Amino acid sequence: MKHKKVAIVYDWIDSWGGAERVLEVFAAMYPTADWYTLVYNRKSAQWAKSFDIQPSFINRLPEFIRANRVLSVPLMPFAVEAINLSSYTHVLSITSAFAKAVITRPETRHVSYILSPPRFLWSHQRDYGTASTLMRPYINYLRNWDYIGARRPDMLIAVSPEVAQRIKKILRLRSKMLYCHHLIHHTGKTCVTT
User: Fold this and answer.
1) What global pTM score does this model have?
2) Considering only Cβ atoms within 10 Å of each terminal Cβ, which end of the chain, N or C, has fewer?
3) What is the mean pLDDT of each run of 10 residues along the chain (194 residues)?
4) Which CATH number is 6-187's, of 1.10.287, 3.40.50, 1.25.40, 1.10.3470?
């Protein structure tokens, strides 16, 4: 992606954890990239203050909505598809939820680094409170949207063999596999995923 116009898209930049260490690695690899996210919290994501971050329309909503996943998740498919990436030659999405479903031009190269298919949709519904009968129609809608959205990138890269298996089983797609720690020698960053 050297000498190309690069956009990096991540689900939400509002905390610090293992997945955020992955973002630091890619930020070091692509220091001039523009960043897009659904929700950005400057106070709780101080580590990202040097990034050029453009949040979605969700960030303009009242805090009680944008800070609450239960309330903001219904808006996220619309927010993802509203991100305008038409001026980029390369897009890198990093995701455990929705970012892989961004819409790009046919000539744009879109690579998606998958930390996991969305657990609250596919594998850990009881843990996330999304297993109820009342939620089922909406979860089925999101599953269908996620299944379709996963086919938009030109390439899927799984963070581990386990995630590659989940992608194959859940999304019926093949992926390449790249441990994040294989990127460390390029950046000097510590790379730990959850």
Assistant:
1) 0.84
2) C
3) 78 80 86 94 85 93 85 90 96 95 96 90 64 72 93 95 94 86 47 40
4) 3.40.50
